[in-house]
Backbone:
């Protein structure tokens, strides 16, 4: 995919899918970093909502574990995709004037039978989240492994698009309007989930 195609898709359908955003070697390096953090017990149970009273740790909505990245303390592997995403942000702002400012995000690990029910990424109490992204680190993902990101059609909830979590694939979508969910996964599913916020 070219940048021009990605921006065109974002403008016309509110999301884009960019395959091979990361190379296999880059994915392998990031996966080692990911596994090291998991083995050290750095991940914690994910919740929903934010810290201003909405937060909910109920497992009925989502079942992943997360590790929040600190942009001031990134490892070399984390810098690989973080810096590339920051460069992409600059181009998106130049072309689409979305006012994207800072990047916030976490590693997300879904266990077997993991899921995240349908939701929007923007909080009811804050409109800062503007553009969401998911970047995948699953090199051996096959048809039947589940874990697809399902995007629900705007204006027609009956239409939907399922996108497999293939290694190196980046998905970006508008946080305020794109309803989405993570379908039941039959393998451990690894990703980075993030949001560009506006001031």
Residues:
């Amino acid at each position: 995919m070219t940048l021009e195609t990605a921006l065109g898709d974002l403008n016309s359908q509110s999301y884009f899918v960019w395959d091979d955003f990361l190379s296999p070697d880059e994915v392998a390096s990031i996966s080692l970093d990911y596994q090291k953090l998991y083995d050290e017990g750095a991940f914690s149970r994910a919740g929903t909502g934010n810290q201003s009273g909405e937060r909910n740790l109920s497992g009925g909505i989502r079942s992943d574990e997360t590790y929040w990245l600190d942009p001031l303390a990134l490892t070399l592997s984390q810098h690989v995709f973080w810096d590339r995403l920051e460069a992409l942000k600059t181009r998106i702002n130049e072309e689409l004037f979305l006012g994207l400012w800072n990047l916030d995000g976490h590693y997300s690990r879904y266990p077997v039978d993991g899921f995240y029910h349908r939701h929007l990424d923007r909080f009811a109490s804050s409109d800062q989240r503007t553009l969401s992204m998911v970047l995948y680190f699953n090199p051996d993902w096959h048809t039947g492994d589940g874990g697809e990101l399902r995007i629900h059609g705007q204006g027609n909830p009956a239409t939907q698009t399922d996108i497999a979590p293939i290694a190196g694939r980046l998905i970006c979508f508008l946080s305020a309007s794109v309803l989405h969910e993570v379908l039941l996964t039959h393998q451990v599913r690894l990703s980075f989930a993030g949001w560009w916020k506006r001031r």
The two ends are 29 Å apart (CA to CA). Residues 3-49+58-197 form a domain with the Jelly Rolls fold (CATH 2.60.120.620). The helical segments are 3-13, 24-39, 76-96.
